[in-house]
Amino acid sequence: MVRGDGIKPGLRVDVGINRIEDPELGRRENDMPKTRLVGDGAFEEAMEVASAITPVSGGVGPITSACPLQNTVAAAYCKKALVAQTRNHLKRGSP
């Protein structure tokens, strides 16, 4: 766990996800303790040092979904352009 004195002022992006037992949430039907998600940093301590911080959960999750999707769309456009270029090349009869 990264404590507040272990970070520098500025933006803090916490991408670590850990599940810990939380006694305040009670227990499940199978008597296992309920858990909650936390990051790699002590959020409250980091808030005192960092100018901005991403929460866990709900911080960078949407980005980790959006970036691969954006890359997939970009790859599809590249493939379409390459196919069109190849077809044009074949129509011209160029070697």
Short description:
The chain is of the alpha+beta class and 95 residues long.
Could you characterize the architecture of this molecule?
The protein folds into two domains: 1-59, NAD(P)-binding Rossmann-like Domain (Rossmann fold), CATH 3.40.50.720; 62-95. The chain has helices at residues 43-49, 61-92, and strands at 10-12, 18-21, 35-38, 50-53. The longest helix has 32 residues, at 61-92. The model has no long low-confidence stretch (mean pLDDT 76). The relative contact order is 0.18. It has 95 residues and is α+β, with helices and mostly antiparallel strands. The strands form two sheets. Strands 1-4 form a two-stranded parallel ribbon. It has a two-stranded antiparallel sheet with strand order 2-3.
Q: Kindly name the structural category.
A: alpha+beta
Nearest-integer average pLDDT: 76
Which CATH C-level class of the largest domain is it? Alpha Beta
| Strand line-up of the largest beta sheet | 1-4
Low-confidence stretches: none
Distance between the termini: 61 Å
CATH domain topology of the largest domain: Rossmann fold
Rg over alpha carbons = 24 Å
Please give the share of residues in helix: 40-55%
Please supply descriptive tags for the structure shown above.
2 domains; two-stranded antiparallel ribbon; alpha+beta; Rossmann fold; 2 helices
Task: Summarize the helices and strands and which ones pair or pack.
Blueprint lengths: L9 E3 L5 E4 L13 E4 L4 H7 E4 L7 H32 L3
Parallel strand pairs: 1-4
Antiparallel strand pairs: 2-3
